[in-house]
Structure formats: C-alpha cells, structure tokens
Amino acid sequence: GIEQRCGPQRVALHCAMTPLFKCFGDDGGHDDEEAWTRQTPATEDERREAIEDVKRGLRAEEAMLSMTGRALGDAFTRTIATSLLGNTSLRWLQLDRNLLGDASAEALGHVLRHPSTALQSLDLDFNRIGDEGAAHIARALQANSTLRDLQLQFNCIGHVGARSMAESLTFNEGLRSLSLHGNHVGPAGAESLAGMLKENSTLATLSLHSNDIGDEGARSLAAGLSEGTPPPGP
C-alpha cells in the first residue's frame, strides 16, 4: 500500500492504504492467518508460572516486564492488575499476543488511573480488545499523565472505540504515540480522531494503517492536522 506521512510539523500520521484486516470472531479470523490468530490458550500451570514471573519482577523493582506471546488471557490480567496497583517502578509493560479482551482492558484501566502508576509504555498489540475495552482505557487516560506510548495494533476496535479514545485524548496531555494499526476505525472513527487532533497539543505519532478510513477519513484527518496546535518540542 501507499503510506502517507502527513503533517510533519505537528503529528506524524501513518495511514497506509492497505486492506482492512478481520478481527477475532469474523469468518476466517485475520486475513493473513498469522500464527498469533491460532494461539492455544495457556494452561493453568502456565498462567500460575506467568503470575509468579510478574511478582518476582515487581519485587525486584524492574522497570520493564515482557509477557509477549504467552496466550495468558483475561484471568491473568485481572490477577496481575491487583499487584500493579500502587507500583512505582514499572515503566514498560508488554502484553502483546496474549488473547486479551475487554476485561483485560478494564483491569489495566484501573492501573492507569491509580495515582502512583509510573507506566510510560503499554503494549497490547495482537489481542482481542474491542470498543468496550477501548472505552475503559480511554476513561483511564483522562486521569493519567504518565503514559507516553500506547500500542493497540491488530485488535477489534471500531469507530465507537476510536471515538472514545478521541474524546479522552482531547484532554490528555501526556500521551505522545498511539497506534491503532490494523483495527476497524473506518471513516467515522477517523473523523472523531481528526476532531481530537484539532485540540490535542502533545500527541506526536498516530498510526492508522489498515483501518479502511477511505478518502473521507483521510480528508477529515488532513483537516484536523491543518487546524491543530503544534506539540511542544522534544
């Protein structure tokens, strides 16, 4: 596809015109049928082991925890979220490719809203988060000032979830990079995000590859970029 990097003076907007992907629950799964769509859920023993890994990391006051590709599911996230509440050392959390849905997003929203959180980067790529989960995270961002990078590539977020994110980021002054690559944002979602770009002065990178935004969505985003306020320098 053709990638456009629009508005370099204020926001790097990536919106390659590649085909829309299917999310979990659609016939046939993801169009490219990558291995992550066929993950086998973790066993109870594997989940318990992962929970212990997290607890050890938190006791050691590690700044980064990576649980990539372990198919741990929502029960795991709800459990570790309790341990993360009040943690002041963790900066980067990688939970991509873990079969996480809206319940996980809700649990992580509680973490992001906690006044002691120090999280700066949250990777939730290649999961099953939909509009409801996006709304949970969006509401958390209204109260969060630490998160700088949020990765939501290849989930199941549609125009309703994009609207929730846009409404929240109109007021958020911390997030610098948001990836919604490979979701279902569409023209309506792009219009909502464009409205956010007119008001938000801190977001520096927005990725909307493979979201079927079409010409209508592209025009909305271009207008949002042209009317928005440039973010502060590095």
What can be said about this structure in brief?
This protein is an alpha/beta fold and about 230 residues long. The chain has helices spanning about 45-60, 75-85, 100-115, 130-140, 160-170, 185-200, 215-225, and strands at about 5, 10-15, 65, 90-95, 120-125, 150, 175-180, 205.
Which secondary structure elements does this structure contain, and how are they paired or packed?
Blueprint: E1 5-6, E2 12-14, H1 44-59, E3 64-66, H2 73-84, E4 92-94, H3 102-113, E5 121-123, H4 131-141, E6 149-151, H5 159-169, E7 177-179, H6 186-199, E8 205-207, H7 214-227
Parallel strand pairs: 2-8, 3-4, 4-5, 5-6, 6-7, 7-8
Antiparallel strand pairs: 1-2
Description:
The protein is 38% helix and 10% strand. It is built from 7 helices and 8 strands, in the order ββαβαβαβαβαβαβα. Helix 2 (73-84) packs parallel to helix 3 and helix 4 (131-141) packs parallel to helix 5 (159-169). The protein is globular.
Distance between the termini: 31 Å
Mean pLDDT: 88
Helix content: 25-40%
| General form | globular
Output the strand order for the largest sheet.
Answer: 1-2-8-7-6-5-4-3
Note the main sheet: 8 strands, mixed
Number of strands: 8
Query: SS-based structural class?
Result: alpha/beta
Low-confidence regions: 1-9, 25-33
The number of helical runs is: 7
H/E element string?
Answer: EEHEHEHEHEHEHEH
What gyration radius follows from the Cα positions, in whole Å?
17 Å
Give the strand content: 5-15%
